[in-house]
Structures are given as C-alpha cells and as structure tokens.
Amino acid sequence: MPAQFEFADRTAVITGAASGIGAALAHGLAARGCRLALADIDEQGLDRVAAALDIAPDRVSLHHLDVSDREAINALPAAVREAHGGAALLFNNAGVAVGGRFEDVSEADFDWLMSINFWGVVRMTRAFLPLLREAEQAHITNISSLFGLVAPAGQTAYSASKFAVRGFSDSLRHELAGSSVGVTTIHPGGIRTSIAKNARHAAGASKAELEAGLARFEKLLVMPPEQAAETILRGVARRRPRVLVGRDAHFMAFFERLFPAHYWSLIGPKAMHEDADSTTGETS
C-alpha cells in the first residue's frame, strides 16, 4: 500500500455531510480535487453545502440517507457508481447523541443511537467495501470520539457506540492489512458542531438542568469543524491508523493510558463541571 493517499480525482462518500465535520470534509476534499457523494438525512442542509462548494456541479451528487435504514444504505453504492463510476474514499461521519444516566435513558433511545452511530458505520462499510476494493487506492475513515477513548458518566449510550466504532475499525484495519484499502479511526475532542443541541435527553431531566448542562458543555466545543477536517484529511493522506483531533483528545488519551482504571475519579468531575449526567456528548 502506498504511504501517501492521493486525493485528486478520487470519489469520496461522506455521511452526515449537511453540517459540522461532514460539511467541512466536503470542502476540504473538493479543494483537493475529489468528486463528492454527499449523504445526509437533512436534504436542505445538503443543498446549502453543495451550493457553497467550489466544485463543478457534475462532480458532486447529493443523496438523502438515513444511516439507520439498512435498505437505503444497500441502495447507495449503485447510486454512487451511476453518478461517479466508483468510489475510493468512505467517511462514516454521521452521528447523534443521547444525554443521561443509563437508568434514565430509554431502551428505544439507546437503540436509536446505536443504529446510527455504530450500525450505520458497519452497514455503510459492508455496502461500500466491494466498490472500494475496485479502486487502485481506497480508504475508510470512521469517526469515533474522545468518548471512544474515555467513558464519562452520563454517556453510556454514546460511549458504547464510539468504543464499538473504535473496536470495529481496528479489527477491520487488521483484516485489510496488505490490501489496497486502509482504515483510519478518528477521535475528535470538542468540535463546534450542532450535535449537542440536537441530542436527545433522558426523560426526567428538567428544562433548567438541560439548559445549564448544555451551556456548560458548549464552552468545551472550541475547535472549528474546518480545522478538525484538515487534521482528519492530513491523517488520511498519511494513512494513519488513528487520528486524535484537538488538545483535549490528546490529553485525555494520554491520561487514560497513565490511569486506565481511575482517570474519571481523578479528573472527570472537574473536566465535565460535575454535570456529566446532564451533558450531551462530544461532537462527530
């Protein structure tokens, strides 16, 4: 496998492309000469992203996609092949959050989150892997999280999904070693996107508690998504197996390695302002 990935004239498929990191990846990849297949459940958001891209109209296609819908995912590779002739890059970026302690989060909300954050990644990878194998160079990029490295209180569903993405990606990378398909796992810290505002919350939390927790958490969301996307794309270009995005992700990864069983009791309450049960999770 070449040490450097060449983006020019490759087709990139991006889920969650209507906003945040997904939209920023679209801009970064367009600037690198990629063709784009942008997928999201938010069709109006996709239109806005496409209109802002500096790219010829015939080099970008828009796909309405709910990544919890197995049949919609299975139909997408054929649509991408028809629009672009193939695909060489897959960015599994779509994600959602549910805030609240495990006993307060409903089974339906837990399942909803896992169907998007984890099963969406698995099903997109399964659907597109045959297409990726046809490319001379191909790469899968799966967005995990800072909470795929550490597991704060109040984030059982979100952390479970992001640890699952991490494990799936690591194992898949080992299986694909020696092939033309690489795999990178991304662990972003506090990125300024809307996932926190759009998160579901456990029943029983008061409006005042939710608003206070959101306000405190949003202070931690400091990195612009454009900066995060550039970090991600530099890592993919070098085919790195893991990319940490932000100083917070680097710090927490280091601290977890030092104190794998006790990191949360040492710094968790302070880092999360002693309100992890009412916050919504880091962005994807």
In short:
With 284 residues, this protein is an alpha/beta fold. Helix content is 45%, strand content 15%. Helix 6 (156-175) links the parallel strand 6 (138-143) and strand 7 (181-188).
Overview of the molecule:
The chain has 284 residues and is of the alpha/beta class. It contains ten helices and nine strands. The chain has helices spanning 20-31, 43-52, 70-84, 107-117, 119-133, 156-175, 207-218, 225-237, 247-258, 263-271, and strands at residues 11-15, 35-40, 60-64, 89-92, 98-99, 138-143, 181-188, 200-201, 242-245. The strands form two sheets. A seven-stranded parallel sheet has the order 3-2-1-4-6-7-9, sandwiched between helices. The chain has a two-stranded parallel sheet with strand order 5-8. Helix 3 (70-84) runs parallel beside helix 5 and helix 4 (107-117) runs parallel beside helix 6. Residues 272-284 have low confidence and may be disordered.
Encode the helix/strand succession as letters.
EHEHEHEEHHEHEEHHEHH
Shape: globular
Rg (C-alpha, Å)? 18 Å
User: What is the share of helical residues?
Assistant: 40-55%
Report how far the terminal alpha carbons are from each other: 28 Å
- pLDDT < 50 runs, ≥5 residues: 272-284
Biggest sheet: strands side by side, in what order? 3-2-1-4-6-7-9
Main beta-sheet annotation: 7 strands, parallel
Supply the number of helical segments.
10
Based on secondary structure, the structural category is alpha/beta
Strand tally is 9
- What's the pLDDT, averaged over the residues? 87
Strand percent estimate: 5-15%
